[in-house]
UniProtKB/TrEMBL annotation:
Source organism phylogeny: Eukaryota, Fungi, Dikarya, Basidiomycota, Agaricomycotina
Region: Disordered, residue numbers: 28-48, 73-101
Species in which this protein is naturally found: Calocera cornea HHB12733
Organism domain of life: Eukaryota
Protein name: Mismatched base pair and cruciform DNA recognition protein
Biased composition (Polar residues): 28-37, 79-101
Stored InterPro entries: YjbJ_sf
Length: 101
């Protein structure tokens, strides 16, 4: 549904709500084509939202792992800058995972 073949939470929510509205109009008017197209758009919007959420969680996991690695390497080599950068990246990944749980 997103223009760049990447799932988007915003786009998913938009299509979910729009689909529900179209389905409701179809229910009120008895227009079965609107009912069906609304159900389909709602389902596609929910699927896109869930895909974006899963993608965000995975990306957060990658950030956490890379950050942990950099933090450990920095600690071992005495590179405080690398250690601090790794800690920041790990924290960023954890936050991203929490947001997408």
């Amino acid at each position: 549904m997103s223009n760049y073949n990447e799932p988007s939470k915003n786009s998913g929510q938009y299509h979910s709500v729009k689909g529900t509205a179209v389905e409701t109009i179809g229910n009120l008017t008895g227009a079965t084509s609107w009912q069906q197209s609304g159900k389909e758009e709602h389902a596609q919007g929910e699927a896109e939202y869930n895909a974006a959420q899963a993608q965000g969680w995975v990306e957060g996991g990658v950030d956490r792992l890379e950050g942990k690695k950099d933090s450990i390497v920095g600690a071992i080599t005495g590179d405080k800058s690398q250690q601090a950068s790794g800690n920041v990246q790990e924290s960023k990944g954890e936050t991203k995972q929490n947001i997408n749980s």
